[in-house]
Amino acid sequence: MDGVMMLATIIMPMVTALVELVKRSVNMPKNIVPAVSFVIGVLVGAAAYPFTDMEWMMRLWAGGYAGLAGTGLFEIVNKREGMTKVSKKKKK
Predict the structure, then answer these.
(1) Quick check: 13 and 55 in contact, CB under 8 A?
(2) Nearest alpha-carbon partner for 48 in 31, 35, 67, 34
(3) Per-residue DSSP letters for the chain?
């Protein structure tokens, strides 16, 4: 379990950065950001194959933890509505 938490701590900044990139690039409802964060975390955990000798399931758990810890839990607690990418209209 220590290895899973250590890997999650290492990949958390990468997951957070990727989630921010997606949030700023794609117009999506804010209430699905936690799910996107979780999925990105699992994918980054799976991509960590060459860097660790952990089993694939443990890497997926670490990625899921990193995704939820990075931005997912913050977004779950704050019930937000609307879209992530808001167009700003010029006022005359």
Answers:
(1) no
(2) 67
(3) -HHHHHHHHHHHHHHHHHHHHHHHHS--BGGGHHHHHHHHHHHHHHHTGGG--S-HHHHHHHHHHHHIIIIIHHHHHS---SBSS-PPPPP-
Which whole number is the average pLDDT over 72-92? Answer: 61
Give tens-digit pLDDT for 33-69. 888 889 999 999 999 888 888 888 888 889 888 888 8
Tokens of 62: 């670490």
pLDDT of residue 43: 93
Answer whether residue 78 shows pLDDT above 80: no
State how far the alpha carbon of 71 is from the alpha carbons of 5, 36, 47, 85, in Å. Answer: 16, 10, 19, 16
